[in-house]
């Protein structure tokens, strides 16, 4: 049984190394592109026209960002089996996995928040524009 468990752990390590390529790509995109683009949406313009342009740019970015989020989540899902293993040999991989999970979750949450905030701001500006 101990031998079988050790073989399973080695198989997981080999699987992790394959999936880590995807993690690294997603993580790199989040750090080098995604976070910068999200910061650009913090300060929204004061006119409805400029806000609609910003919303259009965000939607284009959102399509790409959502695809990276989806790919990262699929890769993490492949590694769900790690939760069953608690040996010291696997611990460093679990730490890496948790780091990727935290980064992806934080970015996806920020993306959702910005999507909602821009949508609500546009609706508010459209309402005020109609009231005038």
From TrEMBL:
Alphabetically ordered keywords of this record: Coiled coil
Record has Coiled coil as a keyword: yes
Name by which UniProt lists this protein: PKHG4 protein
Coiled coil (residue ranges): 90-117
Xref: PANTHER family: PLECKSTRIN HOMOLOGY DOMAIN CONTAINING, FAMILY G (WITH RHOGEF DOMAIN) MEMBER 4, RHO GUANINE NUCLEOTIDE EXCHANGE FACTOR-RELATED
Gene3D superfamilies per the UniProt record, alphabetical: 1.20.58.60
Tree of life domain: Eukaryota
Presence of the UniProt keyword Coiled coil in the record: yes
Gene name, Swiss-Prot/TrEMBL: Plekhg4
Protein source organism: Uria aalge
